[in-house]
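Sequence, please.
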C-alpha cells in the first residue's frame, strides 16, 4: 500500500492529479496486480490513503490547542507555520485531496472530516480569544470565521505553495496570510 501511495506522490510532482491514471500509479510499484486491486480499485482511494497517513503524522506533531500563555497572533502564526511545513512536504497530495472536496458527495464528506479538527481548533481559539478580550465580541459566530480561516489557508497554500518561490516570497505570503486571517477575526 505504501508503494502505491509513494508512486502517486512521485507522479504528483510532475502531473496534476486529474491527469494521472490508476494504471500509471500501479506501474510505479513492484506488486502483483491482483494484490493491488485487493487494496485499492481507484486512484481516489490511493490518494485518500496517502493523505490519511500524512495527516495522522501531522496531527501527532502539532498541538492545535490554544495555549493560556499564547496570544491569538502567536497561535495563528504557529498554526500557519505548521500548515506551511505540511504543505511544503506534501503539497501536491493535499492540493489533490482538497480538490476532491469541491463537489458535494462522499469525497467532500471525507475531506471535511480531515480538516474538521483544524476548523474546530480555530473556532475554540476564537472563542477563548474573545473571552479574554483579545478579539472583539462582535456577535459574529466563531464557526464560520474558523471555516473561512482554514479555507483561506487552504486556498493560499494550493495557489502559492504548489509552485517554486524564493524564501523571501514565501515569507511575504506567510505574513500576508496571517494578516488577512487576523483581520478576518477582527484583530488589527
Amino acid at each position: 500500500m505504501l508503494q502505491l501511495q509513494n508512486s502517486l506522490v512521485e507522479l504528483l510532482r510532475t502531473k496534476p492529479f486529474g491527469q494521472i491514471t490508476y494504471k500509471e500509479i500501479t506501474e510505479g510499484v513492484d506488486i502483483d496486480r491482483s494484490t493491488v486491486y485487493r487494496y485499492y480499485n481507484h486512484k481516489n482511494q490511493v490518494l485518500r490513503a496517502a493523505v490519511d497517513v500524512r495527516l495522522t503524522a501531522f496531527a501527532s506533531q502539532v498541538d492545535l490547542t490554544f495555549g493560556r500563555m499564547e496570544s491569538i497572533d502567536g497561535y495563528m502564526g504557529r498554526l500557519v507555520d505548521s500548515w506551511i511545513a505540511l504543505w511544503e512536504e506534501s503539497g501536491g497530495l493535499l492540493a489533490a485531496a482538497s480538490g476532491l472536496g469541491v463537489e458535494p458527495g462522499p469525497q467532500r464528506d471525507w475531506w471535511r472530516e480531515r480538516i474538521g479538527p483544524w476548523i474546530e481548533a480555530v473556532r475554540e481559539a476564537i472563542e477563548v480569544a474573545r473571552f479574554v478580550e483579545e478579539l472583539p465580541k462582535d456577535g459574529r459566530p466563531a464557526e464560520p470565521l474558523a471555516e473561512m480561516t482554514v479555507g483561506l489557508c487552504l486556498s493560499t497554500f494550493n495557489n502559492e505553495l504548489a509552485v517554486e518561490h524564493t524564501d523571501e516570497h514565501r515569507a511575504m505570503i506567510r505574513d500576508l496570510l496571517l494578516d488577512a486571517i487576523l483581520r478576518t477575526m477582527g484583530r488589527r
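Residues 1 and 38 are 10 Å apart (CA to CA).
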